[in-house]
Design goal:
Blueprint (H helix, E strand, L loop, with lengths): L2 H18 L4 E2 L5 H10 L3 E6 L13 H16 L3 E2 L22 H17 L4 E6 L5 H10 L8 E5 L5 H11 L10 H10 L21 H5 L7 H6 L12 H23 L3 H14 L4
Parallel strand pairs: 1-3, 2-3, 2-4, 4-5
Helix pairs in contact: 3-10, 7-10
Bound molecules: zinc ion.
Length: 292
């Protein structure tokens, strides 16, 4: 084979291989050979979406956060190659145990599962783990898990991503859709996301506006910088925070685009990150021989 033909064959093989992979690199949907190729394309980076199962008003499915998390990660993977691991519906959600359908997993169990997963990802050559949080109640637990990785040297690098709207995003929201209303749960924001991504699972006719406004029962304590385990129940015992009745698919597309853009940016940063692993190695070395 001459060089020209060989290079055409090589290019064709690259194109063929690239085409052979699914658009989104979802770990459990890949065959063995696809997995190896996907892992290399992803530079050993894996997204771990983290949601929960709990009441979302009376019009959204219980697994809204987990569904949105997987959707978001798959869309990001279609743009920037990265593996996505479907952890299912596990989440820290004790604050809504008073409603039927909630499945609250203990922090001890979640820690053990995450620890095993991170170790297994690393053993398979995926040493960059990005936990993508899609449920507000997970934040404290997940950040604590990430920090606890300093307990001893690890075989992987762990990152935490939880998206927030910027001032620019809010300005654009106002420009395109009018004033930003009170929102927080099963609200105009989450309902719009679901209308865009999973319209068949949204039941707009079941919205109960009367039970959708926060109660502010512990606002004085919050102002005094006091945190209590019952704060969410005090504000939002109905699990509906903000009127969702004006939610639209168009708004959902606007919100989802922001989240996808920010997640893709985060993935690219992780794939090219050499600073955090270097600092971590330096830190571990000093921990073994503390400085003074
Ligand atoms: Zn939610």
């Amino acid at each position: 084979m001459n060089i020209k033909v060989a290079s055409i064959v090589a290019l064709t093989m690259v194109a063929f291989n690239a085409m052979a992979l699914p658009k989104a690199l979802v770990w459990d949907k890949l065959s063995l050979n696809e997995f190896k190729e996907a892992r290399d394309l992803a530079k050993g980076t894996v997204l771990l979406p983290f949601g929960c199962v709990e009441k979302h008003g009376r019009h959204l499915p219980l697994g809204t956060d987990s569904l949105v998390g997987m959707y978001l990660c798959e869309k990001a993977s279609e743009i920037e190659p990265v593996l996505v691991y479907n952890i299912g519906n596990l989440g820290a959600v004790w604050e809504s145990k008073h409603w039927l359908g909630t499945v609250a997993i203990s922090h001890n169990t979640l820690t053990a599962v995450l620890d095993d997963l991170c170790n297994e990802f690393a053993r398979n050559g995926c040493t960059n783990v990005v936990i993508v949080n899609c449920h507000g109640g997970n934040s404290g637990f997940l950040q604590s898990f990430v920090r606890s990785r300093l307990e001893k040297p690890r075989t992987y690098n762990v990152y935490y991503h939880e998206d927030k709207f910027s001032n620019k995003n809010y300005a654009e929201w106002r420009r395109r859709f009018g004033e930003v209303p009170t929102y927080g749960h099963a609200c105009i924001y989450e309902t719009s996301l679901m209308l865009y991504a999973f319209p068949e699972l949204v039941h707009m006719d079941k919205i109960n506006v009367e039970e959708s406004m926060p109660k502010y029962r512990q606002r004085d304590m919050s102002k005094a910088r006091l945190f209590t385990p019952i704060d969410w129940y005090a504000e939002c015992d109905t699990q509906s925070y903000g009127d969702p009745s004006k939610a639209t698919k168009e708004m959902g597309e606007f919100f989802m685009d922001i989240h996808i853009t920010n997640l893709v940016n985060a993935v690219r940063m992780v794939k090219n990150d050499s600073l955090m692993p270097a600092l971590r190695a330096e830190f571990d070395k000093h921990c073994a021989n503390p400085q003074y």
